[in-house]
Input
Amino acid sequence: MYEPKPEHKFTFGLWTVGSVGRDPFGEPVRQPLSPVELVHLLAEVGAYGVNFHDNDLVPIDATPAERDRIVAEFKKALAETGLVVPMATTNLFSDPVFKDGAFTSNDPRVRAYALQKTMRAIDLGVELGARVYVFWGGREGVETDAAKDPVEAIKRTREAMNFLCEYVLDQGYDLKFALEAKPNEPRGDIYNATTGHMLAFIETLDHPEMVGVNPEVAHEHMAGLNFLHAVAQAWEAGKLFHIDLNDQAFGRYDQDLRFGSHNIKSAFFLVKFLEDVGYEGSRHFDAHAYRTEDYEGVKDFARGCMRTYLILKEKAEQWNADPEIQALLAEINADDGSTDAFKGAYSAEKAAALKAASFDRVALGRRGLAYERLDQLTMEILLGVR
Output
């Protein structure tokens, strides 16, 4: 019942299953696998697709001949396994050239190089079938506000995004951009720190219709925010172009834990939302196996991400069909029609009628809403006793 199928659109990045377990305090614990080997690993566990940063696939210093050979081998692996590439992105954070940011760097030569690198990476992503292109500005920030004018940083980011949108249009690519927010790490403070920041920024672009967001569980939880609310806002705005699924303890560093492994109720309501609204994009797992694991453990990690999603999908269906839960919701949201005259768009007549209306404030304040019972029933479904 919980085996992944292509219609589930479960994807992983080369950098996720390809993580060698390095952290700031420890050396790698797994030998690196090639992109071709990682494609076959993902096929073995039942994934639908694979995503990548440009340098996950092609080393930053590769010659044109080396690049062509690597891409040809990767295409062959995709054809052999049936995996697809729904999304691609650019690494604008690892190389020392980006130590002060890419699009927001104070050095105009770095900003120009970042645009060049991104255009080439967009070409590569489109060549391999990507329809969504993600931007994570991991170095677009500061450790001290003495270093940069934040208004100038916003303007530089806008200029870069406008330039790249025009490039995509000029090339005739069928491609959308998705901006990924994160409050901190690796920089002390990163610009456009939350999904809400990104949604506001998008509306200032020359082509806002081409640009949406790629919210990530861990990045919102790091800031103590409710991820479901960020996703819902993006969906309501028509801007949920991609999503990164993982898990995260609130207030910790970016853990990238296996999806659903820590905040199970949050994961449940997220899955329920995506399934209820009919989200059709990839379910991308941007997470890493524990540093304790070998590659068999990495496979367990990848299978676990997908299995947990499908279990929670089943739980969401059970929640939606539970008669007691639905009766509670009907009672909570009951509408006797007495306020119908005040609903909808403003008019002077409605405003006057509403000002003249009488409400029993005391009775409204005394009404119990049964949220405790509703939440307990939710927990019982998740705990498997209902």
Notes: Residues 193 and 376 are 34 Å apart (CA to CA). Residues 323-382 form one domain.
